[in-house]
Amino acid sequence: MTQSFDAAMAAFAPPLPLAVAFSGGADSTALLLACARRWPGQVHAIHVHHGLQSAADGFVAQCEALCARLQVPLAVCRVDARHAAGQSPEDAARQSRYAALADAALQAWPQRPMACIALAQHADDQVETLLLALSRGAGVAGLAAMPARWQRLGLTWLRPLLQVEGAALRDWLVAQQQDWIEDPSNTDQRYTRNRIRAQLLPQLQAAFPQFRDTFARSSRHCAQAAELLQEVAQADLAAVGSPPAIAALQALSSARQANLLRHWLRSVHSTTPAAAQLEELLRQVAACTTRGHQIRIKLGCGFVVRTGALLGWYNP
Ligand SMILES: Nc1ncnc2c1ncn2[C@@H]1O[C@H](COP(=O)(O)OP(=O)(O)OP(=O)(O)O)[C@@H](O)[C@H]1O
User: Quick one: which residues bind ATP (predicted)?
Assistant: First the structure.
């Protein structure tokens, strides 16, 4: 259920010391301010300078000013967030941001490495993430949206505000007379996420006022389903072998074959096949009933080939 900002903060019990990922935007300003008041001397802030827009230097100055006022130590890290071919600019920025946040949390204060990092995504961000996943045709792992807690890069990551509406966060900041940075790129309608926020969320609010709660429930169902699929894939891969034996693969249902192959390609070969490529591979596996049947299919960044009784992989 959605919560007030105060209720979410009251329920938040992170390991300390805590680093807040602080962009200077409304959400992380509210999180930083509330954490600094609640755990004085135990809260640090990390700001990532993406170098993507000319306004970024001004963002740093504003973050420094608020942290000085709150007496919160601030680490500013500069990252090169240019995206590689085939990668979305938002994804590239997110990945380099997470790596920089982890480095800073563990190394910026060597006498006192941080135990965890808190991020300020809220209930509207969660809905946007789900709708973005739907717009890409994602499977259950994508529809699971953002977890509230996970371990990665040697740290605990937390999202304590996932049940708070964006407007409630801003109302709280206004009541504290605390201003924040309005990042101009957040209203750029070239980004799908911004179109979802500006055009879809108001319509959803009018048509289904409970959409934040019900969508979040669907995401939790998907998170559970994704966990089960992962467990089944691991067990099936252990039984079928890595690389997979074709005859053993054929004995599974086609849904389990698809689940296993996706898992094998992702976990062993770091590649994600397009839906049509995976369908073609399943068709070829089913048709592979004679000694002479060849398989060679482009999948993600490489090829799946038949090598005797096994499926092989190579990346030219
Ligand atoms: N440049 C940054 N430096 C540090 N943390 C960041 C930065 N950008 C985003 N984050 C963290 O990731 C979360 C989600 O990022 P997102 O891009 O949705 O936020 P934002 O709109 O830039 O800022 P905010 O969420 O603070 O309003 C932020 O709430 C914040 O905790």
Answer: 23-28
**pTM of the prediction?**
0.91
pLDDT at position 82, please?
A: 72
Same domain for 136 and 264, yes or no, is no
| Per-residue H/E/C for the chain | CCECHHHHHHHCCCCCCEEEECCCCHHHHHHHHHHHHHCCCCEEEEEEECCCCCCHHHHHHHHHHHHHHHCCCEEEEECCCCCCCCCCHHHHHHHHHHHHHHHHHHHCCCCCCCCEEECCCCHHHHHHHHHHHHHCCCCHHHHCCCCCEEEECCEEEECCCCCECHHHHHHHHHHCCCCCCCCHHHHCCCCHHHHHHHHHHHHHHHHCCCHHHHHHHHHHHHHHHHHHHHHHHHHHHHHHCCCCEHHHHHCCCHHHHHHHHHHHHHHHHCCCCCHHHHHHHHHHHHHCCCCCCCCEEEECCEEEEEECCEEEEECC
Q: What is the pLDDT of residues 182-221, one digit of tens each?
A: 988 888 999 899 999 999 999 999 999 999 999 999 999 9
Q: Band of the pLDDT at 93, cuts 50, 70, 90?
A: confident
In this structure, the answer to whether residues 247 and 206 fall within a common structural domain is: no
Is residue 48 within 6 Å of ligand 1 at its C-beta? Answer: yes
Host domain of residue 175: 5-214
**Which pLDDT score is estimated for 272?**
86
Same-domain pairing of 195 and 245: no
Instruction: Out of 27, 91, 169, give the residue to mutate to test ligand 1, the one with the largest number of ligand atoms within 8 Å of its CB.
Output: 27
- Annotation-wise, does 27 bind a ligand? yes
Q: Is 26 annotated to bind ligand?
A: yes
Question: Looking at ligand 1, which residue's alpha carbon is closest to its atom 8?
Answer: 23
Please tell me whether residues 44 and 91 are part of one structural domain: yes
* Shortest-distance Cα residue to atom 2 of ligand 1: 23
Q: Is the CB of 47 under 6 A from ligand 1?
A: yes
Q: How many domains does the chain divide into?
A: 2
Q: Is the CB of 90 under 6 A from ligand 1?
A: no
Is 28 annotated in a binding site? The answer is yes
The answer to the question of residue 246 being in a domain is yes
